[in-house]
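4.2 Preliminary Data

To establish feasibility before requesting continued support, the project team ran the inverse folding procedure on a target of 100 residues. The structure was first converted into the token representation described in Section 3, and no sequence information of any kind was made available to the design step. The complete token record follows.
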């Protein structure tokens, strides 16, 4: 398998994952159900990208949508309170995780 194909593998597995209905949210009303929280997301920095990691980040952040951002990829500047973005470096490891 080529290096590019290996780098794209996690992106194809969970390019836009969503939380399952009924996911636990330790918040208040249903309007806040999928608001992403930045607390404790730095624990994922340095870990290799995988579908399992994406699921962990969704659970930890409380977000509904996950977006993988490969190194050098441009993204829009729109803000979504229910989305978490995972920025990857050239080695396909998490460089940064941020809500929005």
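Position-by-position output of the design step:
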């Amino acid at each position: 398998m080529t290096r590019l194909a290996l780098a794209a593998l996690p992106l194809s597995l969970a390019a836009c994952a969503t939380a399952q209905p009924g996911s636990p949210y330790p918040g208040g009303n249903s309007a806040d159900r999928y608001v992403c929280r930045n607390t404790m997301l730095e624990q994922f920095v340095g870990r290799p990208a995988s579908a399992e990691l994406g699921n962990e980040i969704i659970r930890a952040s409380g977000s509904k949508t996950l977006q993988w951002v490969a190194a050098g990829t441009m993204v829009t500047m729109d803000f979504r309170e229910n989305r978490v973005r995972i920025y990857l470096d050239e080695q396909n490891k998490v460089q940064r995780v941020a809500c929005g």
